[in-house]
Structure formats: structure tokens, C-alpha cells
Design brief:
Layout: E1 5-10, H1 24-43, E2 47-52, H2 55-67, H3 77-102, E3 109-111, E4 115-117, E5 130-136, H4 138-148, E6 151-154, E7 160-164, E8 171-172, H5 175-183, E9 187-189, E10 196-200, E11 206-208, H6 215-225, E12 230-234, E13 240-242, E14 250-255, H7 257-265, H8 274-287, E15 292-296, H9 301-305, E16 311-314, E17 325-327
Parallel strand pairs: 1-2, 1-12, 2-9, 3-9, 4-10, 12-15, 14-16
Antiparallel strand pairs: 4-8, 5-7, 6-7, 10-11, 13-14, 14-17, 15-16
The structure holds adenosine-5'-diphosphate (ADP) and phosphoric acid mono(formamide)ester.
Phosphoric acid mono(formamide)ester binds near residues 11, 12, 54, 212 and 215.
């Protein structure tokens, strides 16, 4: 597709290669490996806005805070989200600055602390579904549930994780600031971890809310509000599959929103992993029917933009080619 405005939403899990690479320098190395794909898009004429997840990182902060209890005061969850925006935003700011300089390009890069409005009555507060922190075996997860009062759940066949409430994002407080920075030519990193959850009081004041917003949903909201042409969701797989993880697994190259919605309703996409990505793209396309959504691995973005990789979801698959296509 021809270049336009794109929101690229990197997953928090994508920054943690595996349990042996949880450290901050290891996460930074992953960001360094990731940013060439962003700068390639900028060189290709795209006007890019970057967002990122924080699921593993916000869970690590909560755990550090728990372990230090009695010695230092605990970190409330909304502040932990703010901490991840700072640390991951710093990783992207530094890595993007260095990659732009390496290519002889110059552009202001800004990572913006972003607040996202949620409804304090959102039913999500009754049922914590957002996986945070690292992966555990079931016995360890059950022990933390018993001893520390954690809520826990299996996460996509990859083990068990702690869960926290994840209300729907309603409004991005810093939207107009993001828009003006982007219009002025800055490369903006925003809505980290979906944004720091806040509730609006009747008098308009904001209160922090202890939750973690799904960054895919927040990125879809941002992409629609910025009139983006493309929402890219880089993650751990090159393509979305139906019957994922079974011998009948089928990788998808292109599908319409109607087909994607049908597969979602049939339960093909992992709850808390692939399902929110597909739903975020569908929400975005409802607001921007002529736009497109792309789900792929960070290393495959360039090939995907040439239609050689990734899963595209759009109303006119293949930019006019109405064939739906799957690959085994
Ligand atoms: N139907 C599916 N097709 C492809 N991957 C799926 C599917 N269902 C679940 N997944 C899993 O979801 C993962 C992406 O979710 P997750 O790791 O939570 O995202 P993030 O990169 O945003 O942290 C993939 O790497 C894959 O393991
Ligand atoms: N906040 C959020 O959705 O983070 P992940 O992408 O890391 O799950």
C-alpha cells in the first residue's frame, strides 16, 4: 500500500525474548533490533507513531515492590504503568535517535507520558484478565494466589501469569498534544502500556486507576483518532492462524473484517493474546473503513508492506484484490 500515517504497536512480550533475557539491557537490545523496521518505514515515506505494551515489565515492577515491602513503600499500579512508560519510552527514544543518526537522518523523537480515560464502573474490574509479569508453572502460580492473593490465569499455552483488571480505553488525554507533535514532524512514542488508566470525575479532574489497559485497544483508538491509514501490530508470530497450535493450524495472509470477526467469534484467537489484537484492528477499521490492519513479527514488517508476509485485515484485501488467501 502507498505510504500514509501508521501507528505501530509493539508488544511488551516482544521486548522480552525469553525468561533468560528479562534484564533491562536485554530488553534494550531487543528494542535496538526492532527500531530499524520503524526507520525503514519512515524512509519509505510513512508518518509513524509508535506505541508499546508493558505486560511483562509492569508485572516485574509489582513483584519488586512486593519483595521490598516493609523496607520501601509499595508502588500503586497506575504509577507502575507510568514507570514503564518512562523506561520503555527511554529505550525507544535512545534506540530511535541512534538509528536515525546512523542513517544520517534527523528528526525529533519524543516519548510522551500518556493518560487514558477508563470507566471506573467497567465490568473488567470484577474479572482481572490482563496477564502481567513473567510466566510460571501452575503450582507456582497457585502458591502466589494462596499466599499473596494474586489472581492468575493460563496465558496462551505458554504457562501461567498474574492477572490484573484491564478496562476498555475510552479517551486519550494527551491526544491533541500527540497530534500536534506528529503534524510538526516529530517521531512520537505514546500510549505506552495502553496509557496510564485514569477516571474523570464529574468536575473534570482526573484520578489514577489501578489497572493495565490493553495496548492494542488503546493503539486502535489512537490510530482512529489520528486518521491513520494503517495500524501495525508487531508481535511474536509472523502471521495470525486459525486452529492455532493444532495440527490443522492454517496461517492467514489476508482477510476481511467480516471473516476476522467470524473467526474471533469462533474462538480461534487466544484470549488476552491474539484476540485483543484482532479486535483492536476491527475497532479501528469500523472507524476508518478504508484503512488497513497488519499483524506480523517485527522482522517481517518490511516484507509485509510488500505483501510478502504478515496477516492483513482490510475491507479490500490486497489493495483491491478481493481474493481471501490462506497459507498452510
Ligand atoms: N490464532 C493465533 N494466531 C497466532 N498467534 C496466536 C494465536 N492465538 C494466540 N497466539 C499467540 O499470541 C501471541 C501474541 O500475543 P502476546 O504475546 O500476548 O502479544 P504481545 O506481543 O502484544 O505481548 C503470539 O505470539 C502467539 O503465541
Ligand atoms: N499493556 C499491554 O497490553 O501490554 P502487552 O502488550 O505487553 O500485553
Amino acid at each position: 500500500m502507498s505510504a500514509g500515517r501508521a501507528v505501530i504497536a509493539f508488544g511488551g512480550n516482544a521486548l522480552v525474548r525469553d525468561d533468560a533475557h528479562q534484564s533491562i539491557p536485554d530488553q534494550y537490545d531487543t528494542v535496538v533490533d526492532t527500531v530499524p523496521a520503524i526507520v525503514d518505514m519512515i524512509e519509505g515515506g510513512w508518518n509513524v507513531v509508535v506505541t508499546h505494551g508493558n505486560g511483562p515489565q509492569v508485572g516485574y515492577i509489582l513483584r519488586r515492590s512486593e519483595l521490598a515491602l516493609g523496607e520501601v513503600a509499595p508502588v500503586p499500579l497506575d504509577y507502575a504503568v507510568g514507570d514503564t512508560q518512562g523506561a520503555i519510552g527511554y529505550m525507544f527514544s535512545k534506540a530511535l535517535h541512534n538509528e536515525l543518526s546512523r542513517r544520517g537522518m534527523s528528526r525529533p523523537v519524543v516519548s510522551l507520558v500518556t493518560q487514558t480515560v477508563v470507566d471506573p464502573e467497567d465490568p473488567a474490574f470484577e474479572r482481572p484478565t490482563k496477564p502481567v509479569g513473567g510466566f510460571m508453572d501452575e503450582a507456582t502460580a497457585r502458591r502466589y494466589e494462596r499466599e499473596l492473593g494474586w489472581t492468575i490465569a493460563p496465558d496462551g499455552g505458554r504457562g501461567w501469569r498474574r492477572t490484573v483488571p484491564s478496562p476498555k480505553p475510552r479517551e486519550i488525554i494527551e491526544l491533541e498534544t500527540i497530534r500536534s507533535l506528529v503534524d510538526a514532524g516529530s517521531l512520537v512514542v505514546a500510549c505506552g502500556g495502553g496509557g496510564i488508566p485514569v477516571a474523570r470525575r464529574p468536575d473534570g479532574r482526573l484520578d489514577g486507576v489501578e489497572a493495565v489497559i490493553d495496548k492494542d485497544r488503546a493503539s486502535g483508538l489512537l490510530a482512529a483518532a489520528l486518521d491513520a491509514d494503517l495500524l501495525v501490530i508487531p508481535t511474536g508470530v509472523e502471521r495470525v492462524a486459525i486452529r492455532f497450535g493444532t495440527p490443522e493450524q492454517e496461517w492467514l495472509s489476508e482477510l476481511t473484517p467480516a471473516t476476522a470477526a467470524r473467526y474471533a467469534a469462533e474462538g480461534h484467537f487466544g484470549e488476552g493474546s491474539m484476540q485483543p489484537k484482532v479486535e483492536a484492528v476491527l475497532d479501528f477499521l469500523r472507524a476508518r473503513p478504508t484503512a488497513a490492519g497488519l499483524i506480523t513479527a517485527p522482522a517481517c514488517i518490511a516484507a509485509a508492506l510488500e505483501r510478502r508476509s504478515g496477516t492483513w485485515i482490510e475491507n479490500t484485501p490486497g489493495n483491491g484484490d478481493t481474493q481471501e488467501e490462506t497459507q498452510r
